[in-house]
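ok so for the tutorial part 2 we go from a plain amino acid sequence to predicted structure tokens. step 1 is just haveing the sequence, like this:
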Amino acid sequence: MNLGLDGKTALITGGSKGIGRACAVAFAAEGCALHLVARDKARLEAAREAIRAEHSVAVHIHAADLRDGETVRRVAAACADTDILVNNAGDIPGGSIDQIDEAHWRHAWDLKVFGYINMTREMLAHMRARGRGVIVNVIGMAGEKPSWEYICGGFANAGLAAFTKGLGSKSPEFGVRVVGVHPPATRTNRITALLRTVAKDKYGDESRTEDVLRDGAFGRVIEPEQVAETVAFLASPRASHLSGVVLNLGT
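step 2 — the prediction. this is what the tokens look like for a chain of 251 residues:
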């Protein structure tokens, strides 16, 4: 499907693997130049080479830890011409409130919560100055279905959903759309590890991941490419009527 994105530039955080890398491939297939941000330079380089082998688009990589506000500002300045921002970087651990101490809780939120906030603040300013742009926040169904076993992530995701809706309710006035997606359990290394943590806490057996999944949509994980296709659609002119909404990809 031609989404009308050819010639656009997309900045994707957490772009070296999982949902972020799938988003990079989806945007490259639509003819978008890319800025990929992640902490692991080797993985970024591997992603860049794989994408270049399949698609004739520019791929710029930025090895950076977005927990640091100054680093966020540096990356944003280097990507000031970006048309589309996909906030995706995050590694919030599973566990109950008694299992995650303050230091680990803050460390997790520095990336997924404040990383999203800080990058959005910077890129929104650039987009607002140009009078156009789209921001897509990849959040998570735990924001809709918070649980004891993933309390840190559920709380973060609920807040990011409110953040998305609040910004997106006003941003079209200056030509910018802000939208989000709530993926359910998705086939990535991080989610596999998280499912094991939840299974161990809930059932005392980390191998019972299938039992955890039975509570979700269709009782199975979805693929990163399914999330990426939705993100690309939301960023495209075909979704130009949407802002301030978060699309649930599960139940």
